[in-house]
User: Fold these one by one.
Assistant:
Number 1:
Amino acid sequence: MINIILSGCNGKMGKMIRDCAADRSDCKIVAGIDLFESPDTPFPVFTSPALCSVVADVIIDFTRPDNLDALLELSLQKKIPIVLCTTGFSPEQIEKIHSAAKNIPVFFSANMSLGVNLLIELAKLATKALGGQFDIEIVEKHHNQKVDAPSGTALMIADAISEGKMSYVFDRHSVSKKRGENEIGFSSVRGGTIVGEHDVIFAGRDEVITLSHSAYSRSVFATGALNAAVFLAAAAPGLYSMKDLIK
């Protein structure tokens, strides 16, 4: 049984992870970290990582980027592996994540869905097969409460297919010129309760290929986070992603 500290335990994703964990026999939420109280929380909840005194095998974080420093400090001090599911990290924060991974196991993925990670592999294959003859655009749609744009998943897709060789355009309406070569354009939609939709569009001469993924419930991300926690509990220090989980 893998014992888990859940950061963001009383948020929407936190509650989904709690529900999914309750149906499993290989892991258990033993403590939470959250600024907000909830009367139905069946485990101790601490208002900050520094106050958490519960011993556990893994930490799962589904909160905000500004919690990273305190969570990494807890993980490093107590040598607890950590699963980072939060998006919107700055380049400096990503450097801190890589640095921490030298001492503890860190699972870092902008999207915990198996389907999204399969989409990425298909997009990489399509990019190689089309040989630069198709323009690439990424359209992502999320609920109206999402803060970062474009989504971490959209950037993860772009980074995978670009391999550092393509430029990103986030605000095309402000650029009065034709589309350049080796560009990836991004479009973000925020509305309603859309869980998450990503389209990778390959637009060529007289034909368009679109790879799509739609998440209809947050449970796909919760399941992925719990699978990552179980995987990470037995891992050596290092940086891991969904690619390691689905091998």
Note: The chain is about 30% helix and 25% strand.
Number 2:
Amino acid sequence: MTAYNIDTLKKLVRPEQIFENEPMRDHITFRVGGPADLLIQPEVAQVAEVIACCRKEGIPYTVIGNGSNLLVSDKGIRGVVIELSRPASNISIDGCRIYAEAGAMLAKTASLAAGEGLTGMEFTSGIPGSVGGAVVMNAGAYGGEMAQIIESVDILDEEGNRRTLSAEEMDFSYRHSCIMEHPYIVLSAVMQLEKGDAEQIRLRMQELAVQRKEKQPLEYPSAGSTFKRPEGYFAGKLIMDAGLRGYSVGGAQVSEKHCGFVVNKGGATQADISALMQHVQDEVKKQFGVTLEPEVRKLGDFE
């Protein structure tokens, strides 16, 4: 960071919100990745000012949430990583609407909804991500997706203005939203739920938790489903049918429990994971003529 003036940035946040040479492996669920030059954990009200400062000083910046869908380079990330996490995780409930800041965890938000007897978020209860990240990629599971419950989303646009986008303006589709095409930053979201039976909601969440534990390799670090579902196929079945169950590169492995997951069995590097993902893509393409598109987003210096 010696090439950048970070003194102004340090004045915008409290000392406990800013970290220099921060290992990114501690901030993504794959548990790999080199250091970020600087990592800041702002409150929602501080985001616009932090980004304006980065732009003024010519400091590159990257915005992340819980890191549950990311693969960070072994070389790390240059510039500033703005992590929307605990300081940006306020949640409030008004009738059947839930307001959640981008750093709020989906599981906690779903639990609070259940406590209020609100149904519609059960599918999110086991997704290890934040509200912001889930909105960006229209996260889903077990037949549900964020598009079904989002009423509106507050974003910071490319000019630093705070705007509210309707669900229609978000242009949701499978693992997609308009955020992927624009330099927008999700600050918060309003979710519209329905009144339900609190006990039945809890039971449904418990059922999904059991299914997840039985079918997914939750005992190892991963980024969830590694590849998007190809039209007409299931990525995990294609990978299994290609004979790649348990295939390893270094500490990275195609999960023996669910072939749709690449896991860190211990000591994996980004290079291991990248090489394994590429081999899986090559084999599936060669054997079945299907192109697997990664669901995992890459950050940092990839050669």
Note: Residues 12 and 46 are 8 Å apart (CA to CA).
